[in-house]
Specification:
133 residues, alpha+beta, 2 domains, three-stranded antiparallel beta sheet, two-stranded antiparallel ribbon, 5 strands
């Protein structure tokens, strides 16, 4: 219990308002990007402050496990492409899960989906952008 408490305190020390230290938020609830820079240029990068928080968290994990954080293995913070998708769920769409509504939903070819309760499915659609053309 003491080790877990210590871990959560270290994680919380790198947290900021509305963003826990063990997560990298890349979009707000409305889908607008956050912690991403240079979107118009097409050469996106993770904001340096957000990157520092995540690197600090990975170093905490490195301290507590036999895994070693190697910065040279993590070149993924820059030169990224920006894609925007649509998130939704059946309840928000005011739909009930029936054979017909599920079939219509699957025909939209969701990028991901999860049945989060007996009467709701949360999903992500490749709209307005597509990963594969």
């Amino acid at each position: 219990m003491k080790e877990m408490d210590s871990f959560f305190r270290r994680r919380d020390a790198i947290s900021i308002s509305k963003e826990r230290g063990d997560r990298l938020r890349i979009s707000n609830k409305d889908g607008t990007p956050t912690n991403i820079e240079n979107i118009p240029s097409g050469n996106c990068i993770i904001n340096s402050e957000a990157k520092k928080r995540i690197v600090d968290f990975m170093k905490i994990l490195s301290d507590l496990t036999e895994w070693e954080y190697e910065e040279n293995d993590w070149l993924c913070w820059e030169d990224m492409k920006f894609f925007q998708f649509k998130k939704g769920d059946f309840k928000g769409d005011r739909k009930t899960i029936t054979i017909q509504t599920f079939k219509e939903f699957i025909e939209k070819k969701p990028l991901s989906w999860a049945m989060t309760s007996g009467d709701n499915i949360e999903y992500t659609l490749e709209e307005p952008d597509k990963l594969l053309k």
